[in-house]
Amino acid sequence: MARKQFQLEYVIRSSTSILYEFLAQPTNLAQWFCDFCDSQGDIFIFGWTGSYQRARQVETIDEEFVKYHWEDSDKNEFFSFRVYKSEISNDTVLEVTDFAEQKEIKEQSFLWDKQIEDLKHAIGA
After folding, report:
1. Hey, what domains does the chain have and what are their CATH numbers?
2. What is the mean pLDDT of residues 62-66?
3. Which of 50, 64, 106, 111 shows the smallest number of beta carbons within 10 Å?
4. Strands 4-12 and 36-40, bridge-based pairing
5. Is 11 helix (H, G, I), strand (E, B) or coil?
């Protein structure tokens, strides 16, 4: 069964440049996304209580977009962050794209909600 792509959007009280740094830099990712993060070139090592996963940062657009591919996942799967200003409200919006089994999308969405709360706290938003 193929995993499905899903997207979530969050309004973040932050400038796009500061928010982007928390999505693309290892020291900032370790403040909200994982317990440990380091990078060697475009390879990022993410750690959570003793387990580690490697992802390649496959695409970046400064202050706007960053895309990662887990080394052990399907070649067409990724997780990404897009940052933009809402044309209507001028709020900074974070769009998260990820993949999960259809029956796990709701659970994964709750996990992202928690992660984004941690991100808002780390930024001070």
Report:
1. 4-123 (3.30.530.20)
2. 96
3. 50
4. unpaired
5. strand
